[in-house]
């Protein structure tokens, strides 16, 4: 199953090396189970998006390790892909960029042709460069956000609601970032999505983190205050909590976290993993060591 990772560090750029490479269940470790592509999305000091991605697993991608150690940003968006639709190519690898925002998705839905017709109607079909359902979902969010005068939360709510009412849905879990904001969706309850709010750093003092799991122990220096959203808890920190199904979570530049519930209780036509083809079903199983 694809893995999502989003980090918001507030107004000051930070490095995310620990979470990408060194944590007990880092994105690099998760890529051992998800082999089809890895990408990191960040923003420059001028707020311009930057995406570094390859259609190969993070553990075998030297560029991933290099960029993970070098990049600094106020927000990070990373994705480890297990493909369910679309070839293993650069254009099908997350994150995607549209209108200066970055997007990654974990899940699946059916009747992509119906969504394509909708995208033609709202004028964003041309934004889709690859074959994935994920990039199409993003294009619908972009269209709805444009229609809401740039209100990303309203755009997400309208797009997810349209999909829930018009196509069979397995999972629409996703994260969107800008240089100043992060949004995350867990809908419906098919796949997990977790959040960690860490705002315990004393002013002027570095903070050490020692994370353990059943498989590994890791240390990091001076992570700073941050909010993390991830498909699975990446450390044994008891403050990780699962996001409730149907949540639209928002993190602003002050690291304040707000949650709303703008989506239908359930999709009109809900898929299960057993409804998918064998290859697609394999890509949607949890696959997390317990």
Automatic annotation (TrEMBL):
<protein>
    <submittedName>
        <fullName>Glutamine amidotransferase</fullName>
    </submittedName>
</protein>
<feature type="region of interest" description="Disordered">
    <location>
        <begin position="268"/>
        <end position="290"/>
    </location>
</feature>
<dbReference type="InterPro" id="IPR017932">
    <property type="entry name" value="GATase_2_dom"/>
</dbReference>
<dbReference type="InterPro" id="IPR029055">
    <property type="entry name" value="Ntn_hydrolases_N"/>
</dbReference>
<dbReference type="GO" id="GO:0016740">
    <property type="term" value="F:transferase activity"/>
</dbReference>
<dbReference type="Pfam" id="PF13230">
    <property type="entry name" value="GATase_4"/>
</dbReference>
<keyword id="KW-0315">Glutamine amidotransferase</keyword>
<feature type="domain" description="Glutamine amidotransferase type-2">
    <location>
        <begin position="2"/>
        <end position="254"/>
    </location>
</feature>
<keyword id="KW-0808">Transferase</keyword>
<dbReference type="InterPro" id="IPR026869">
    <property type="entry name" value="EgtC-like"/>
</dbReference>
């Amino acid at each position: 199953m694809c893995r999502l990772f989003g980090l918001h560090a507030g107004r000051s750029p930070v490095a995310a090396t620990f979470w990408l490479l060194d944590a007990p269940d880092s994105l690099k470790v998760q890529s051992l189970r998800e082999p089809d592509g890895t990408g990191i999305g960040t923003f420059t000091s001028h707020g311009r998006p930057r995406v570094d991605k390859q259609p190969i697993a993070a553990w075998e991608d030297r560029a991933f390790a290099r960029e993970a150690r070098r990049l600094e940003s106020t927000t990070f968006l990373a994705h480890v892909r297990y493909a369910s639709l679309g070839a293993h190519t650069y254009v099908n690898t997350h994150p995607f960029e549209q209108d200066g925002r970055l997007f990654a998705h974990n899940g699946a839905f059916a009747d992509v042709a119906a969504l394509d017709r909708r995208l033609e109607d709202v004028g964003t079909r041309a934004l889709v460069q690859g074959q994935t359902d994920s990039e199409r979902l993003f294009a619908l969010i972009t269209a709805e956000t444009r229609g809401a005068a740039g209100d990303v939360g309203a755009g997400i709510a309208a797009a997810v609601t349209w999909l829930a009412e018009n196509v069979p849905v397995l999972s629409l879990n996703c994260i969107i970032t800008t240089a100043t904001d992060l949004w995350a969706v867990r809908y419906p309850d098919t796949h997990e999505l977790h959040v960690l709010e860490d705002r315990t750093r004393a002013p002027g003092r570095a903070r050490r983190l020692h994370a353990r799991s059943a498989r590994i122990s890791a240390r990091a220096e001076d992570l700073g205050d941050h909010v993390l959203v991830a498909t699975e808890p990446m450390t044994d920190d008891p403050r990780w909590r699962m996001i409730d199904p149907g949540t639209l979570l928002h993190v602003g530049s002050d690291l304040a976290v707000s949650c709303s519930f703008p989506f239908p209780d359930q999709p009109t036509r809900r898929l299960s993993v057993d409804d998918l083809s064998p290859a697609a079903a394999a890509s949607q199983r949890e696959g997390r060591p317990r």
